[in-house]
From TrEMBL:
The keyword S-adenosyl-L-methionine does not apply. One of its GO terms (cellular component) is cytoplasm. It comes from Cellvibrio mixtus. The gene is ndk. Major role in the synthesis of nucleoside triphosphates other than ATP. The ATP gamma phosphate is transferred to the NDP beta phosphate via a ping-pong mechanism, using a phosphorylated active-site intermediate. It holds the Pfam family NDK. Residues 2-139 form the Nucleoside diphosphate kinase-like domain. The active site is at residue 116. The keyword Nucleotide-binding applies. This is Nucleoside diphosphate kinase. PROSITE patterns: NDPK, NDPK_LIKE. It comes from the Bacteria.
């Protein structure tokens, strides 16, 4: 089925001028960008987005990192978009990510891993709505 998923190009990848390279991978794999915005997350925005990780040992560092510079938040649409995006990203830890994936090629470490992608239809719905209004994501 055609799905939408929420993607974030994280501060490390933005700093390394990788926005275009990462978007190219999505587009070449058949995912379309249907909404996109560049912004500097506030701490409250980052904490709310990652609320499920509150209390974990890496939470404060995750919020520090995600607010350390601009990110690109985007909605990707396509057949099987949620799983396809996760395939393109590779494993959370770049050391474990398959060769040729975004994280294997561009990420430095588990806590600076270039991209985020929704992990299920439930989280995709929540995460898309976290950043975009309905009228912004129903363009195609
Ligand atoms: P992401 O897919 O954005 O979701 C939560 C993020 O927490 C994850 O990517 C990692 O970048 C980050 N993180 C930092 N440290 C860890 C860790 N030890 N285990 C899992 N995720 C971590």
């Amino acid at each position: 089925a055609v799905e939408q998923t929420l993607s974030i190009i994280k501060p490390d990848a933005v700093r390394k001028n990788l926005i275009g390279a990462i978007v190219s991978r999505f587009e070449q794999a058949g995912l379309s960008v249907v909404a996109q915005r560049m912004l500097l997350l506030s701490r409250a925005q980052a904490e709310g987005f990652y609320a499920e990780h509150q209390g974990k040992p890496f939470f404060d560092g995750l919020v520090d990192f995600m607010t350390s510079g601009p990110v690109v938040v985007q909605v990707l649409s396509g057949e099987n978009a949620i799983a396809l995006n996760r395939e393109l990203m590779g494993a959370t830890d770049p050391a474990k990510a398959a060769p040729g994936t975004i994280r294997a090629d561009y990420a430095e470490a588990i806590n600076k891993n270039a991209v985020h992608g929704s992990d299920s239809p439930t989280s995709a719905a929540r995460e898309v709505a976290y950043f975009f209004a309905t009228h912004e994501v129903n363009l195609r």
